[in-house]
Amino acid sequence: MALDWRTKKVGLIVGSLRENSFNRMIAAAIPELDDSIVYESISIADLPLYNEDIDHGDGPEPVQRFREAIKRVDGIIIVSPEYNSGIPGVLKNALDWASTPTKTAALRRKPVGLVGATPGVKGTILSQQQIRQTLEATQAFVLPFQKMYISQVMDKVDLERRLLTDEATRKYLKRYVQQFILWIDQVPSLD
């Protein structure tokens, strides 16, 4: 793939630390859907618990790396499960680190898309509502009107190969990613 100045770079954040997470499988499928986009996996695994006492200057080294990774991409897609009808604690912690310092926060004015997968039948509706609320407080620009909830995910992946295999889900996910790329182009007009 030849890169040019118009090539989009999208960060992928998985809201789970579990190695065999369904959401990690979904995130791994996203780069396969459109090879005109460059993707970067942005890990939240090494972030310390948010503590304002250590959030000064550029913050601890893992926080610096995390913030820099967000700043160097054109947009972020968060792929997250739902824990106990809400946002996973590790993801909330990461979003808190990315929301400071307020005037130069990594998430400030950053386009963000949300995808979530769960074995349950309701998808990640409640988790995504809470993630949206947190992102609104950070002044991020969450893709409006589009939702990507993947329910009964265990029927849509090959657990041994750790792959998304359901063609209908791949189609909807590709459409969501295409809408997100268009959203990245719209965000400058919101200034």
UniProtKB/TrEMBL annotation:
Give one Pfam hit by family name. Answer: FMN_red
Q: Per the database record, which ranges form the NADPH-dependent FMN reductase-like domain?
A: 9-151
**From which domain of life does this come?**
Bacteria
Q: Which SUPFAM superfamilies match?
A: Flavoproteins
InterPro entries given in the database record: Flavoprotein-like_sf (IPR029039), FMN_Rdtase-like_dom (IPR005025), NAD(P)H-dep_reductase (IPR050712)
Q: Which family does it belong to?
A: Belongs to the azoreductase type 2 family.
- What this protein is called in its record is NAD(P)H-dependent oxidoreductase
